Amino acid sequence: MIIVMKKDATTSQMDRIVSWIKQMGQQAYISQGEERTVIGIIGDTRSLDHTLISQFDGVENMVPIEKPFKLANREFHPQDTVFNVGGVAIGGERVVSIAGPCAVESFDQMLETARSVKEEGAQVLRGGAFKPRTSPYSFQGLGEEGLRILSRVREETGLPVVTEVMQPELVSLVSSYADVLQVGARNMQNFALLHAVGKAQRPVMLKRGMMSTMEELLLAAEYILLHGNPQVILCERGIRTFETYTRNTLDISAIPLLKQLTHLPVMVDPSHATGKRELVEPVSMAAVAAGADGVVIEVHPNPEEALSDGSQSLKPEQFAAMMKNLKPVAEAVGRKL
Ligand code: PEP
Ligand code: MN
User: Fold this and answer.
1) Which of 6, 35, 51, 239 is the 20 to 30 Å CA partner of 171?
2) Which residues surround ligand 2, an ion (CB under 5 A)?
């Protein structure tokens, strides 16, 4: 349930309500909007005296949140969530491009990629140090050495970095190097991991599971938000269908739908969605046209020799061309790139 406060409600009126909610054994979450403040009570509110709540000074009205996701719900937080990652606004007017290789392979590979994507307007660098590979015989990532490379490349280029964490025990290690913690599609419902990244109070990029519904994605985000960590990016990266020409099927409608349902920023990963480099540019255009707050693009200086996902990785010059073509699309929908 949410309690909508009057426009002129005072802090002490709010504090009185919050402490009463706590006395009743419930948790209160505050969403401070530009227009007005909303207090969310998460959980079973049947035992609360609703008439009493409505009589508190400063209360305008009370609205039940019927959907199972509460803190992620736009009803609880009507304005877009915007947060800062190393000086880059996520969820704001500018469409953010995150670019880099699938996996961190060496310092030189990361530095070369980072410099070239930055030159073309990428604002955040990606690269996996811990890789979730289907086969145990495939390259598993450089581990902590990969994290050290990422942070050295950040020092050199100033680009903040996003990298995946797969185990709750490794959240603090990865947090000590990364600006954004990525929870991959395969771990979207790893609830212990979601709790751990929530507690870390770091920005999180939560990728949609390949067989997950939007509601499951939003409920996964809810695990992170419950720890008082509002910095969650949702990432649509394609779902499994019967189609085999593409690696996954991009659910384009997920973008406007998520934007309606939630205040969290929504990004799209056309690389994993398609699995094919020649589809990355047109699908990115579609994603930006549909309202995505950012795109996540795999780029490798030499894709033929990449240790993972070479066939979907753009060459630096292809990334440059894509960024040029994406700009007018962003402007056509009132955004910047
Ligand atoms: C990745 O971004 O490196 C990745 C493995 O993606 P996903 O979890 O979406 O498959
Ligand atoms: Mn990849």
Assistant:
1) 239
2) 102, 309
Which residues are CB-contacts of 231 (< 8 A; sequence separation ≥ 6)?
Answer: 81, 83, 90, 202, 203, 204
Residue ranges making up the domain that contains 229: 83-332
Do 112 and 45 reside in the same domain of the chain? no
CATH number, domain with residue 326: 3.20.20.70
Ligand 2 centroid vs 84 CA: distance in angstroms?
Answer: 25
For the CA of 296, the closest atom of ligand 1 is 2
Q: 172 alpha carbon to ligand 2 midpoint, in Å?
A: 23
CA dist list (Å): 140 to 135, 136, 174, 300 = 9, 8, 16, 17
Does residue 103 belong to any structural domain of this protein?
yes
For every one of its 337 residues, what pLDDT tens digit does the chain have, with 9 covering 90 and above? 999 999 999 999 999 999 999 999 999 999 988 888 999 998 778 888 889 999 999 999 999 888 999 999 999 999 999 999 999 999 999 999 999 999 999 999 999 999 999 999 999 999 999 999 999 999 999 999 999 999 999 999 999 999 999 999 999 999 999 999 999 999 999 999 999 999 999 999 999 999 999 999 999 999 999 999 999 999 999 999 999 999 999 999 999 999 999 999 999 999 999 999 999 999 999 999 999 999 999 999 999 999 999 999 999 999 999 999 999 999 999 999 9
Residue 89 within a domain: yes
